[in-house]
Design a protein that fits this description.
It is a single chain. Helix 1 (2-28) crosses helix 11, helix 4 (80-111) crosses helix 5 (116-127) and helix 7 (146-173) packs across helix 14 (324-333). It is built from 15 helices and no strands. The protein starts with a helix and ends with a helix. It has a single domain, classed as Na+/H+ antiporter like fold (Up-down Bundle), CATH 1.20.1530. It is mainly α. 83% of the residues lie in helices and 0% in strands.
Length: 343
């Protein structure tokens, strides 16, 4: 008992302390904090041998909480109303970009000898950007106006497409039938699960959150909201889907109560802490030997993200009537991958 407690406390202390130091350094250098978390993970991880003090299994378990809370927060921010306000321009740009990157990433995976399923996963990795990272950068640099509106329009649609991809990848990951009939059956199962969870959630969740809000105790609201989040994640896992999908739906259902701003303010500090653990866990998994062995694949995918992605976005934006300068800036802003890729 004491041994497990020692491992847990040592791992958590190592993750948070090293992450705090590296993020402070990256803030001073005006670099994305996520890079600091990844560096922290590499430092305390088993592959570089610098400070191998954290248990990878413990950190990975904690990082799954970060995934759930990240997706819950995205669900809180998502609504069909927002999707409607995005309009045809944002939808068209996002669909063109994600479709092109999925195809290109899959083609590159196949060219380097990966299986069809592995190549499709690679396509998804390079296709989706990070709402979390871009929102933080825009906030820090005070970027507003047409560029901000267009970028977030594309990201809203990307988030929705990413959730659908997560559901599909979960099916592929557990060895689902790839035939047309098999995919149709899996699609019907997914629709049934989503419909059931949404119907039950719409009936129960807003009432629960509003009842808790009337008590006017922030800690009770926080516990109830996160409880709904983990209950939905557990339901998704039980039916064979990603916990991220359940958490996203939970956030959308909590939003139905109309108190999303208050819930966001309460959940944000908890999310930030476990999101840090998640990105540190990703850093711990970085193995320089694998990168050296697969350097050609890594280089090709880097070129896709840095050149192919901004080109696809810029051309899509320009084709929908956006000016050349704003199209190029939008493309450059979205030339990155984010939390969905790591998930």
């Amino acid at each position: 008992m004491h041994e497990h407690t020692d491992i847990f406390l040592t791992s958590l202390a190592a993750v948070l302390c090293v992450a705090a130091v590296t993020t402070l350094l990256f803030q001073r250098l005006r670099l994305p904090i996520v890079l600091g978390y990844l560096l922290a993970g590499a430092i305390i991880g088993p592959h570089l041998g610098l400070l191998n003090v954290a248990d990878e299994g413990t950190v990975t378990t904690l990082s799954e909480l970060g995934v759930i809370l990240l997706m819950f927060f995205l669900g809180l921010e998502f609504s069909l109303g927002k999707l409607a306000r995005v309009g045809a321009r944002g939808i068209l740009i996002a669909v063109l970009e994600v479709g092109f990157l999925l195809w290109l990433g899959t083609a590159i995976g196949g060219a380097f000898g990966f299986s069809a399923v592995q190549s499709f996963f690679i396509g998804g990795i390079v296709a989706i950007g990070s709402t979390t990272i871009i929102a933080k950068v825009f906030e820090e640099q005070r970027i507003f106006g047409e560029l901000r509106n267009l970028v977030f329009a594309v990201l809203i649609v990307e988030d929705l497409l990413a959730v659908l991809l997560l559901a599909l990848y979960t099916t592929l990951g557990r060895g689902g039938d790839m035939s047309a009939m098999g995919l149709a059956q899996e699609g019907l199962k997914l629709v049934a699960f989503l419909a059931g969870l949404i119907i039950i959630g719409i009936v129960l969740v807003p009432r629960l959150i509003n009842s808790v809000m009337r008590i006017n105790r922030p800690e009770t609201t926080l516990v109830a909201s996160i409880g709904v989040c983990f209950a939905a994640a557990l339901a998704a896992q039980y039916f064979g889907y990603s916990v991220a999908l359940g958490a996203f739906l939970a956030g959308s259902l909590v939003r139905k109560a109309g108190e999303e701003k208050r819930v966001e303010a309460l959940v944000r500090p908890v999310r930030d802490m476990f999101a840090a653990v998640f990105f540190v866990a990703v850093g711990m998994s970085i193995d320089p030997r694998v990168i050296a062995e697969q350097w050609q694949t890594v280089l090709a995918l880097t070129v896709v993200v840095m050149l192919g992605k901004p080109l696809a976005v810029a051309l899509g934006a320009f084709a929908t009537g956006v000016g050349v300068r704003t199209s190029i800036r939008t493309g450059m802003t979205l030339s990155q991958i984010g939390e969905f890729s790591f998930i």
